[in-house]
Amino acid sequence: MRVVAGGTLVYRGFMALSGELALGPTPAVVFQIILGILLLLGLWTPVAGALLAILELFHLFTLTGDPWIHILLLTLGVSLALLGPGCCSIDARLFGWKRIDIRDRNH
Predict the structure, then answer these.
(1) Do 40 and 64 form a contact (C-beta atoms < 8 A)?
(2) Alpha helices for the chain (secondary structure H)
(3) Residue 34, pLDDT score
(4) Rounded CA gap, 39 and 1, in Å?
(5) DSSP secondary structure string, 24-45?
(6) Contact 42, 89 (CB under 8 A)
(7) pLDDT per residue rounded down to tens, the chain (107 residues)
(8) Intra-chain end-to-end CA distance of the chain, in Å
(9) Taking the CA atoms of the chain, what radius of gyration do you get in angstroms?
(10) What residue segments make up the domains of the chain, in order of their start?
């Protein structure tokens, strides 16, 4: 999920900077590229996912055109904010991979 969301953000950001896609002002596009890089690396994933959800919610209501890419990225942002980065990420290396052990009630 991180790779798909991050790669899409970086790709769409560079498309917007080249003038082929309208995504708003340049600082917002650069912010989108930075979020994509953070997601690709798996660094601060819950924060980046929450910011992605907010950004895509803003894009959903302000940009014209097909809304489905924004709905998809909004959903991925919320999912990443709740699930975290996974085992192959910088977050997992820095803070450890979180694992929940459910014990049997008999013990």
Answers:
(1) no
(2) 2-17, 26-41, 45-62, 68-83, 90-95
(3) 96
(4) 9
(5) S-HHHHHHHHHHHHHHHHTSSH
(6) yes
(7) 889 999 999 999 999 999 888 888 899 899 999 999 999 998 998 999 999 999 999 999 998 888 999 999 999 999 999 887 777 788 777 776 666 777 887 76
(8) 36
(9) 16
(10) 2-95
CA–CA separation, 14 and 19 (whole Å): 9
Backbone angles phi, psi at 50, to 5 degrees: -65, -40
From 102, 54, 104, 107, select the one nearest 77 (Cα to Cα). 54
Residue showing tokens 């942002």:
77
Residue with tokens 């999912």, as numbered in its chain: 79
> Which pTM value belongs to this model?
0.82
CB 52 within 8 A of CB 9: yes
pLDDT of the residue at 64? 84
pLDDT of residue 50: 95
